[in-house]
Amino acid sequence: xxxxxxxxxxxxxxxxxxxxxxxxxxxxxxxxxxxxxxxxxxxxxxxxxxxxxxxxxxxxxxxxxxxxxxxxxxxxxxxxxxxxxxxxxxxxxxxxxxxxxxxxxxxxxxxxxxxxxxxxxxxxxxxxxxxxxxxxxxxxxxxxxxxxxxxxxxxxxxxxxxxxxxxxxxxxxxxxxxxxxxxxxxxxxxxxxxxxxxxxxxxxxxxxxxxxxxxxxxxxxxxxxxxxxxxxxxxxxxxxxxxxxxxxxxxxxxxxxxxxxxxxxxxxxxxxxxxxxxxxxxxxxxxxxxxxxxxxxxxxxxxxxxxxxxxxxxxxxxxxxxxxxxxxxxxxxxxxxxxxxxxxxxxxxxxxxxxxxxxxxxxxxxxxxxxxxxxxxxxxxxxxxxxxxxxxxxxxxxxxxxxxxxxxxxxxxxxxxxxxxxxxxxxxxxxxxxxxxxxxxxxxxxxxxxxxxxxxxxxxxxxxxxxx
Length: 468
Ligand code: DUC
Ligand code: ZN
Ligand code: ZN
Known about the structure:
This protein has 468 residues and is α/β, with parallel strands linked by helices.
């Protein structure tokens, strides 16, 4: 079975060129000059004339059906990976969860059970270690050696739920330094935030905007710096700051990177486009739609400008979504009258490719950088490269044919995520996903789903390629 994508412009981090892509089975067989391969001999032909051919995008941060705040994220692996496919994302890396007192391997088995047979695209797992103890530390070694899980998320926030104290963080970092794994850090000072939350509620400040105001940039910056210093004590353990939103936290990452440290960071589309005032501060309870942590930041400060700059300078290496959707009805509504009870999360797995392409059109990033931050770097960062993240012979034939002349309307009426609202309702972006190919199979074409549930495979990952 061969598939030919012809007439397109292949885009990768190292350049852009007119080229035809020949796929044999599940992998890319060759890339040739336009017209080099015979269309008559291909089983399937995809016309990419006037369009970009990019590697299938990789969302390295999703939370399908995550139990949180008395409910669970509303996308299952089925609905979430289907939405991902529509948006040109052909790989997700989701977070399996271990909580205090639980066995890490049991948490992993539970995540495999949720995902197996459900996914439209390929998937891997990071592991959240919510209870760092002797057994959990041993389990980290076992997951790296046997399970293809090479990254572990720790929390400096959510006391009593996920939080690790500094001693636990240091011990996990020491283990990661030894086995080569990446520590992913939710860097917010949770105990200090909880004080501010209690004080706000005591003053009668219950609206969603207080979620943001009680999680100020200083408490993201403090935790980010602390994580960086703790990693230095663990002999420069590889550290990846997730969902970075504040300029001050970015400055700490940039300083560490300038010093040559194994420190990396991601941001998310919501921090690049949405703000504390315009979304979280929407009238009444509307702002609940945008309650996520870290929170949206003030438009009167430098955050968005600095985040785009960080993407250009590589102080921010990746854009992931932190896809963690909750419906307004019966989920976000749990926090009516008390912002601290609003489940934290925004759904966005379907729109990252388009929202970041808008960044190209707006002049914030180059075309090549777009591909790098949505596909190539996540693959290299999390041990999937060169199988994923690049259009090259031998790589999985995960391809997106992207139409720069198209437009994408974002809204609840058209999206495929299991959410009763859209965080980007009414937004229209330049560009449109036309054809999505996963391991040689057209799974979405012009807005029509062709892939089937269960075709997505679990990916065992290697170590990050960025470590020294
Ligand atoms: N942040 C969120 O917004 N949701 C889930 C967990 C997290 O860290
Ligand atoms: Zn987090
Ligand atoms: Zn997350």
